[in-house]
Amino acid sequence: MKTLLSCLLAATLMTACNSTNDYVANRAGDFTDILRAKVMAGKGAGLYVNATEYLHAGYLYTDDISSAGIANRDAGTWNESSDAWGLLLGRYNEAVEGGYYSGTYGYTFDDGLGFERADKDNWMDMLEFRAALMLGVGVDLELRTGEVIDFVLGLFTLDLAGDDR
Description:
alpha+beta, globular, six-stranded antiparallel beta sheet
């Protein structure tokens, strides 16, 4: 068992010697991708949760609120408006000015039942868990379990999320 662990560690460290990419920066980026978090203030109210992009519960409405947080390997402030609803099926709509948080995702009923994903290029985002609470001030947290997988596999230079540089 010690030999296997030693070999795995050596293989992981050898990938760091690759001069064509910045291994340490990519691993740090993958680690920060695991959690998105923001605080909000302004006109808004609600309680909303989702387990993956497919299962939703609650209602959340915000109108041109101020937000500050960490997302997409960056920290910052921005203004946004959103509305989210769900009772098993649901939808999270988000319009952001001056930054990006998570995007719009969920079910559509325009021409029958359809589904929109937040990031069509990163299927790992489908595996998120989110909770938001707002009453004039609020908090919104996302645990992105797909990014945990991306981080672990990234140790071996596999990039399932396609977000390494």
